[in-house]
Design goal:
- By secondary structure, this protein is mostly helical.
- The protein contains 9 helices and no strands.
- About 40% of the residues lie in helices and about 0% in strands.
- Helix 2 (about 70-80) crosses helix 5 (about 145-155) and helix 6 (about 175-185) packs across helix 9 (about 240-250).
- It is globular and about 45 Å long.
Length: about 260
Amino acid sequence: MIRKHNSWIFIIAGAVFYALSLNSCKHDPVLGDDPITPVDTTDISNPIDSTDNPVDTSGTPCDPEVVYFELDVLPILRSNCAFGGCHDDNSAQDGVILTSYTSVINTADVEAFDLDGSDLYEVITDDDPDKRMPPPPNNPLTSQQINLISKWILQGAKNETCNPGAGGCDTAAVSFAVQVLPVINTNCFGCHNDDVPNAGISLSSYEKIKAVAEQGLLVGVISWAPGYDPMPLGAQSPLPQCTIDQIESWVAAGAPNN
């Protein structure tokens, strides 16, 4: 009886630990309490009116060879690391905060031009699950995400800025593979995958992303529309307006797998 009792203690303790680990990326459901009527973005005959939020076409165009911290690196850290219980401003595990350029440079031991001397790179590439970040049950960063962070470090770990809409925003024939999926993988997948489907939403496949898009949820959360929880989680401002307009255009075209 003692052995049986002890086995139940271990089972319960394990279940509690797993449940707590799933809270690492927890946020409220994407819909607010107030009833809302999502904008119909599936009717291509009804063009999107973006006059209330015109795209800023000024500033420096983005160089595809440059990794930009705000656009490329911070969304990965925010989605996979900078949340409650880990490395947001309040939790700051091990003194590491990954919510801004200043906090990353000051607390994550990033050495410009030096991967071996950068603790941030070391923990995201560690083969030991007990040392690797993000820790299980969260998924490790993808090779593409690791390559972006390593390239940023090798380029000097700078806080370069650019405007994706500079010179104009092309919303014609938006590609799921080229314009939509990379945004979701960088900004959303850390909290919305099959292992950690926060708010009951997984964005791990085209079919699942399309379903969320057709419900109006995708455009609602990224545009910070009334009645929706603003996403990405922890962001201080919405995605660039050009990015939002391109995703809206893709949804309006029927969310094709192109």
